[in-house]
Amino acid sequence: MYKAILFDLDNTLLDYDASELDAMRRTIRHHGLHEREDFRWETFRTVYAPINWTYWIERGERQLHISQVLEYSFRDTLAQLGHDSTVSAELATTYWELFCSSCHFMNGTEELLLRLHGRVELGVISNGIGLAQRGRLATGGILHYFPHLFISDEVGIGKPNRLIFDKAVDALGVPRSEILFVGDSLKDDYEGARAAELDFCYYNPRRDPFQDGISPAYTIHDLFELHGIISGEEGQR
Questions:
Q1: What range defines the domain where residue 60 resides?
Q2: How far apart are CA 179 and CA 199, in angstroms?
Q3: Which of 14, 54, 129, 143 has its CA 20 to 30 A from that of 149?
Q4: Which domain of life is it from (predicted)?
Q5: What tens digit of pLDDT does each residue of 143-177 get?
Q6: Run of H or E residues at 150
């Protein structure tokens, strides 16, 4: 039924949250922050998360490099908590190195890719940083499954812009009607796939409800359900 499958990466194939948490904990330990009597991990995370998100969202407008996003995030967090913020650049460097070499899979990823490899063309369309996405795929031993990688900071376009999908379609050389895009975001993935006239499979492991009018071609709650779709069997709609 489908000759090519394009995947979103974070929280579809790779567990972004687990990688971020792992890299952050290791960074804190590496620099000894956890040894301070006044350091509280949960407080640190609670303060850091919205600061980091703001810098990430503003990075394009402010022309911030990922190293600056991380350094400023650590700096502002430490300052707000009353800690020494002069180590923020070192923390950012350590965190980025650890994150780029951290790979945690979503449940079923490895088995799915093993079964799909050689049966259909595989590719990735991801909003992210190429160094991190490629590094994490390589760490997990699955980079070779994806001859087609379209990462927003390398392409210069991000989802849901249809142009990044069009680039992937052109590279695959497969008719749009024979390409399925799989992702976990209704904003970036569903809207982008719909604009590009690609069938979309919504990966929804938490079974989150969605509004009327949103109509992915398929909805799955486990990655193994893709096997039936690829084989031409009816998926949950």
A1: 16-100
A2: 7
A3: 54
A4: Bacteria
A5: 999 999 999 999 999 999 999 999 999 999 999 99
A6: strand 148-151
